[in-house]
Amino acid sequence: MTSRPLILTLLLAGSAAGAQQVAFRDDRSSPAAVVESLYNAVNRHEYLRAYSYFARDRIGDYAAFKAGYADTDHVDLRLGTPVTEGAAGTTYTMLPVVIRATDTEGTEAVFTGCYQLSQVSPSIQDQPPYVPIRIIEGTLAATDTAFADATGRCATD
Which terms are listed as keywords in the entry (predicted)? Predict the structure, then answer.
């Protein structure tokens, strides 16, 4: 299978009613699907669902997380090629990202960075709760590069 950057654009009309027009996506079957689902939740203003994609021991307070999106109207997302490696029953993936965040005033900002995700092998999970693929770290930095030209980078790049 050839790896190619995945481009996903998520658009939102800008109101709570518009948020409901974005098709619901909650897919935890791959690292890319988890990050796509994260921004789907942000675009639908479903911040608790967005928060749920992160490992509990790796993310701060929910109220602060939610407040960080207070002025966000919508986010466009581009994913780079993931790099995956395994260790002791857990798979780790570094996923480069580029996002364009548009605030409620229509101002756009572009960020580049990386999400690190982990998945404990389902075959070794035998006690509740089941732990799906989850984000264990995310770094984003503002860039002056245009969204279409920007490239996400991970430490392994």
Answer: Signal
